[in-house]
Write a structure and sequence with these properties.
By secondary structure, the protein is of the alpha/beta class. Helices cover 46% and strands 15% of the residues.
Length: 465
């Protein structure tokens, strides 16, 4: 069989993900692998008709398509995202339609599932027959047990093609939305009280998003910075070179860092406004998110109130919503709200004003919602990966984690270790164990009840003051 490998890495032959493909080539010598480096060659593919035609011809001739890509910022790299936009924009999906497809990704397992869901949905949109994915840690190929799993994954993919196995789609087509938002005069504007409000967007002239951005800005009484992300003057997307790991300095010499420090860093309230392109924000926004990796794994939104304006069918895009909400939480910021143009247009004005009012109220109170699984799990992944080996290169991350006590391994809590050991020994005494089992609910809530009693005393003291 002939397998077309769509490589999303900007590093081409030096891609970590591509090494997994090369392993498969050795393991399956009877099959032909044709690699198209859309991540590395996206500018050429976009601008040169000949390169675009060659790529389509390679896809046309293949029996199956393997998407091979690293995970950048909870999704595929911006370069691959742009290629997917081109397929839709140039009506080239028919070349992919009917092809069997699978995905192979490499990462540290931080939001690899959203990258897989996105690729699966794109395949469904293109009429492809998606058979599954293999998610590898960047170092898994060194493990023989994983090598066997990788071979089994690819064998199943090949069998699906040879058997012409039926595949049901999982993601239904997205509904079409029509521009219909006509903003009216906002109610009394919300006093910003000296706080910095920044709205970043990629709106097209005359679009619903442009109208939403303009109306939201009018909902604040104080000055609001409104900037199009093209003003960042990015020369290109993230290269995955990791040269920023030492001192948080990007290899690009363009206007992105200055734009970031002018708009993002000082913002108390940051609003990100984007239009849905296929099933995510635009490739330009994805490039913006990827380029922010020059900050490493430092939570650069920490303490901010973040809001989103979305032009597009967000209600049908669970993966996009998960990425947007989780990005805020993992950055130790607070989600002030999301406003889209998909509900009744008459309610958008009120929703925008409510976002302005809530973002200011929560900023005044310094409220950051307690973390849930995405942030807790993300912290543990980064902590363990940085401590476990990445700190040799990611020096800036290591300094930040040390200075902020983020190497919070539970084994360092010696009081807890001693208490756990004593309790464990006590549990070996039958009488003690019977008592604990019998009164387990009491032992579980007793420390919390003690905290309630202490808080009551503190409340009474504050009342007297």
């Amino acid at each position: 069989m002939q397998i077309c490998v769509i490589s999303g890495s900007p590093k081409g032959e030096m891609s970590v993900t591509l090494q997994y493909v090369r392993f498969l080539e050795q393991a399956f010598p009877e099959h032909t692998f044709s690699v198209v480096h859309v991540g590395q060659d996206i500018r050429t593919i976009e601008r040169q008709e000949e390169a675009w035609d060659r790529l389509l011809a390679t896809v046309q001739e293949c029996d199956g398509v393997l998407w091979a890509t690293p995970v950048y910022c909870m999704l595929v790299p911006a370069q691959l995202k742009r290629f997917i936009e081109l397929v839709g924009g140039r009506n080239a999906a028919e070349v992919l339609s009917g092809k069997y497809a699978a995905a192979l990704t490499t990462s540290i397992h931080f939001f690899d599932h959203t990258a897989h869901a996105y690729l699966h949905a794109v395949c469904d949109d293109f009429g492809m027959r998606y058979t599954g994915f293999c998610s590898a840690h960047i170092q898994d190929l060194q493990n023989e047990a994983f090598q066997e799993r990788l071979i089994l994954f690819f064998s199943d993919f090949l069998e699906a093609i040879s058997e012409q196995r039926p595949v049901q789609g999982e993601f239904p087509p997205l509904p079409a939305l029509f521009a219909a938002y006509a903003p009216k005069s906002p109610p009394a504007a919300v006093d910003t009280r000296g706080r910095r409000v920044v709205i970043l967007h990629d709106a097209e002239p005359g679009s619903d998003l442009e109208a939403m951005v303009r109306h939201l800005a009018a909902c604040y009484a104080g000055p609001v910075q409104v900037a199009h992300i093209r003003d960042a003057m990015m020369k290109g997307a993230c290269l995955g070179c990791c040269r920023c790991a030492f001192e948080n300095a990007c290899v690009y010499d363009d206007g992105f860092r200055a734009f970031w420090e002018e708009h993002v860093v000082p913002a108390d309230i940051l609003v990100i406004a984007g239009t849905v392109r296929d099933r995510f924000f635009s490739a330009a926004w994805k490039q913006f998110f990827d380029r922010s990796f020059f900050n490493g794994h430092v939570p650069t939104f920490a303490g901010k109130q973040v809001g989103y304006l979305v032009e597009g069918p967000l209600g049908h895009l669970a993966t996009l919503r998960e990425v947007l909400t989780s990005l805020v939480m993992t950055e130790k910021a607070n989600l002030a709200g999301i406003v889209t143009n998909e509900p009744d247009p008459a309610g958008i004005d009120a929703a925008l004003h409510a976002l302005a009012e809530r973002s200011m109220r929560l900023a005044d109170r310094g409220y950051i919602a307690p973390p849930t699984f995405p942030a807790v799990a993300g912290h543990k992944i980064f902590r363990d990966e940085i401590w476990g080996g990445m700190r040799a290169i990611f020096k800036a991350d290591d300094r930040y984690y040390r200075q902020n006590g983020l190497y919070d391994f539970p084994t360092w809590n010696y009081a807890q270790r001693i208490s756990t050991r004593v309790t464990s020994l006590a549990m070996s005494i039958p009488a003690v164990r019977r008592d604990v089992v019998k009164n387990m609910p009491h032992y579980m809530v007793q420390p919390l009840q003690d905290s309630i009693e202490k808080s009551t005393v503190l409340a009474k003291r504050r009342a007297k003051q």
